[in-house]
Amino acid sequence: MRSTAALPWTLVALTASAALALLWLAPLLWAASTALRPEHETVSAVFHWLPQTWTLDAFAKVFAAGSLPRWLFNSALVALLVTMLTMAVSITAAYAFSQMTFRGKRWLFALSMIAFMLPFESLIVPLFRLMNQLRLIDTYAGIVLPQLVSPVTIYVFKQFFDAVPGDFRDAAVMDGASPWQVLRYVYLPVSGNIVWAMSIVVFIGAWNNFLWPFIVITSSEMMTIPLGLTQTQDAFGVRYAQMMAAALLGGTPVALAYVLFQRRVTEGMLAATGLKG
Amino acid sequence: MTGKAAPGQASRRGASGAGAAFLMLAPFLFVFVLFFLAPALQTFIMSLTESSLTRTNAFIGLANYATLMHDPAFWNSLRHTLYFAVLTVMPLAVLGLVMAMLVDHFQRGRSLLQASFFLPFVLPVSVMTLIVDWMLHPAFGLVNHIVGGERAWLADRDWAMPAVALGTIWWTVGFNMLLFLAALRNIPADLYEAATLDGANRLQLFRHITWPALRPTFGMALILQLIASFKIFGQTYILTGGGPFNTTRVTLHYMYETAFVQSDAGYAAAIAMAFVVVVTCLSLSQIGIMNWLGRRGG
């Protein structure tokens, strides 16, 4: 009974899935199909789904033009710095909030979580003035520093540390371990998965951040990928194959991070909503 | 304290704990106070002044807010933001739910399906805008090839915002799908089995098991999405520059222009405060409505 009743639904689901998946991949496939053509084919009066001549010319040209490798380097450096520093800053803070006793802990934690609610966008004007006073406009430090405030990461790690049985900690403390040693040798070894998941999510977020770099960066040499790619017409002219090649190259590192670590990304993104800790 | 502390000493963590706790919190407190707390307070203070991007000129009380109340450019920007939210919030939640149910239906190929829906979400905004711009190119775009004609979607008064909204739905729906997938996995399989044995059909299963279990997630997705949609800036700024005829100039865009193009930082801070109030009110009221609906549905 069940299989005959389920069959039409499976067919419906199969058709809908195939159609939606194709629709969702179409813009990316079309971008790839454009990037792999010689430039004149992108503005041809006759429409073709696929390149008539397949070529990597556009990719070679955007690399040779110079700006793109620099933007890729800036993005990689900034995203790696933001990821490592955010992790260090947030994990130690989360450990203090979770496992240590000190006065004012509750309200300090509540205050930190307000940053969860307040849109970062509303801070950019005074933040720009501050960066200007600190002489950090158009510098790597200027891009990185404000991104290190990540209440979400603290929240996720605090939830995680809260759930670790206290026996191990107590045993280590009995043996005279300092809080740093307890964190290093008891809590971090059991946090491998969540550290990975959050690192990848923070990395993707930092790579993709648009608004803050847009405010704090003023020169083309300091631009990250999301910013640089808004300048493609200036950098490469109105050349559609090259623009698509640049777009695909700029998206590749994060797309790769997702495809390689699909489960971790999913896990981390969900944890970051505060729904699952 | 030498070498190993005696058990009795070690258990009194409170004494030496405060110093260690402060050290562990110090890096966070440093960036938090300097790059969050201080700017947050400064936004408020600055909104009461006449300031440029580099200096504060005069304290003017609530004058910026008085101006804001009667500033058609501000209200228009808010209207455009609201319009974008209307075009995106519900479609994103519903489509995300549909995609999650499709992915959840399959054993084989599910991660491939999930990846096709989610992949656009991990791309930077300017990759998305480059691709959407090219898809919508009046003469050589794929969209016009399929629908016919040579419409310049992003330069069209009526179509610019819907086009940005469609691009955004393509870009971000994967995140909503993820929320629903997690919720679907938490529904015990034996609920479905028992109901199927009782002769329930697919629609009944959805109405009586899936939907009641997913309703809190649906509310959560709507709230998260409403906030995210109100924060729109990059998509319209890059794709349309706020045009045509300012029809896609959203609130954050207006704030950005006021601060960084006109160097009227005090007024921009007032816009930022208004923006915070609007977003907070919207999410609070939405939480209220969801709770109310939840109680009624019981």
Describe the protein.
By secondary structure, chain A is mainly alpha-helical. In chain A, 73% of the residues lie in helices and 0% in strands. Chain A folds into two domains: 2-57; 65-272, MetI-like fold (Orthogonal Bundle), CATH 1.10.3720. In chain A, α1 (2-35) crosses α15. Chain B is mainly alpha-helical and 298 residues long. Chain B has 13 helices and two strands; from the N terminus they run ααββααααααααααα. Chain B has helices at 7-10, 13-46, 63-69, 72-105, 110-118, 125-135, 142-147, 160-185, 189-197, 202-230, 234-239, 251-261, 265-297, and strands at 49-51, 56-59. Chain B has a two-stranded antiparallel sheet with strand order 1-2. In chain B, β1 and β2 form a beta hairpin. In chain B, α2 (13-46) packs across α13 (265-297), α4 crosses α8 and α12 packs antiparallel against α13 (265-297). The model of chain B is unreliable at 1-15 (pLDDT under 50). Chains A and B meet through α1, α4, α5, α6 and α10 of A and α2, α4, α5, α6 and α8 of B.
Quick summary:
Chain A is an all-alpha fold and 277 residues long. Chain A has helices spanning 2-35, 39-42, 57-64, 67-99, 105-117, 124-133, 140-144, 151-163, 166-174, 179-187, 192-208, 211-216, 225-228, 232-236, 240-260, 262-272. The two termini of chain A are 41 Å apart.
The proportion of residues forming helix of chain B, as a percent range, comes to over 70%
Gross morphology of chain B is globular
Largest sheet of chain B: 2 strands, antiparallel
Number of structurally distinct domains of chain A = 2
Instruction: Give the helix level of chain A as a range of percent.
Output: over 70%
Distance between the termini of chain B: 59 Å
CATH architecture of the domain at 83-249 in chain B: Orthogonal Bundle
What is the H/E string of chain A? Answer: HHHHHHHHHHHHHHHH
What oligomeric arrangement do these chains adopt? Answer: heterodimer
Span of the ends, CA to CA of chain A: 41 Å
Residue stretches of chain A low in confidence (pLDDT < 50, at least 5 long) are none
Total of DSSP H or I helical runs spanning 4+ residues of chain B: 13
The number of distinct helices of chain A, counting runs of at least 4 residues, comes to 16
